[in-house]
Amino acid sequence: MRSAWIVSIGSELTLGQSVDTNAPWLAAQLAAQGIRCRRQVTVPDELEALSATFREAAAASDLVVATGGLGPTADDLTRQALAAAAGLPLELDAPSLEQIRAFFARRGREMPSANRVQALLPKGARPLPNTCGTAVGICLELAGTPCYALPGVPFEMREMFRREVLPHLPALGDGQVVRFRRLHCFGTSESAIGEALADLMRPGRNPAVGTTAELGVITVRINASADSPAAAEALLDDTERLVRARLGTAVFGRDGETLASVVGALLAARGQTLGTAESCTGGLIAKLLTDVPGSSAYYLGGAVSYANELKEALVGVPGELLTAVGAVSEPVARAMAEGARRAFGSSFALATTGIAGPTGGTPDKPVGLVFLALAGPQQTRVEAARFGSESPRVVIRERAARTALDLLRRELIRQGP
Which region holds residue 294: left if phi is over 0, alpha if psi is between -120 and 50, else beta? Predict the structure, then answer.
């Protein structure tokens, strides 16, 4: 399989001030065309380091794709570095300059003189027009290897890649294509999944199977290589069936699906609705639900009843109950969920109350203890979850919100269609 280097350019990346989202996206796009990314390199805005990286990348791969460093300021050095690596001078590309001027004119502005540098290209390079910005891309053959320099702004980079790079990639491939699939799991550990799928994860298997974990969600990654897209998809289908058969209801979704979108689809299919009452999660469950387009069809609303007074006023938790057992307790979680269901007139209601930390814990109620309640037409269920006193506040809140959604998901599955 042909290989590529992806070069991410910018001192803000090497200093940890920004997160590089371009390289993972590009790697997936290249793999789908049968070109495997062999190395991802992050380089600061330094001319010598950049030019040396371009020379090394071109000598070691069949394709180089770089992002960033094409702006109009003094620290944007990609064009100069490419020219230095190729031993070529920079020349003004008049059509590119006119495109930049037109970009400003459409916005009723005159082009600043500083933007003129964005029309400078290594001699003989092919300009890559930017339809949504001023950073002109560059295509240059370096030591016989095609090198593409794209903008660092993600939406500009993706649009330029689709228009100016993707059509040329089939000629670089060797007939192999790679297709990916991701199956998302919740409610079980990565080690348990690893044991269940051990034979599928053996080195050299096609499709290759691996796992990653993030805030309680374990993702099973399936990567298939074949001579055609159809053959690769068939391999993915076979392995997906095996994974689902072994993991059962732990698998909640595929690829871009989330716990919130899956729960929403289950509710919508049944014509049921949901309300929420949140304390320690502070509206995070509501946020996850409303991130999904069309969530108004099943999510009615929520109460962020952080203070005890609002637990009483908004969802009807008795004051004497709060005094007797405390806000972080099974009875209060139950009362919050049942009160929210009454207040919103919803089919189901989720409630959370806990200690997200880093302070406020006691020996009986440590940081990381969260009570999750689900009130529904048949019953109210309450579960106590312990997310670890050493866990950061953001992790406890995120995991509590996801666990609450999974509690509802499993209840909907249990009830059937």
Answer: left
pTM for this model (two decimals): 0.80
pLDDT in tens, 360-372: 999 999 999 999 9
Question: How many angstroms separate the CA atoms of 123 and 90, rounded?
Answer: 6
Q: Who's near 411: CB < 8 A, 6+ residues apart?
A: 348, 374, 376, 381
Q: In what side-by-side order are the strands of the sheet with 380-386? A: 299-304, 274-278, 348-354, 369-375, 380-386
Task: Count the Cβ atoms, other than its own, within 10 Å of residue 307.
Answer: 12
- Pair 243, 183: CB distance under 8 Å: yes
- Regions of the chain short of the pLDDT cut 70: 173-175
One DSSP character per residue, 248-292 reads GGGEEEETT--HHHHHHHHHHHHT--EEEEESTTTTHHHHHHHTS
Q: Map tokens 């027009």 to a residue.
A: 129
Straight-line distance from the first to the last Cα atom of the chain, in angstroms, rounded to the nearest whole number? 46
pLDDT at 178: 84
Domains plus CATH for the chain? Answer: 2-168 (3.40.980.10), 177-254 (3.30.70.2860), 259-415 (3.90.950.20)
Q: What is the distance between the alpha carbons of residues 36 and 191, in angstroms, rounded to a whole number?
A: 28
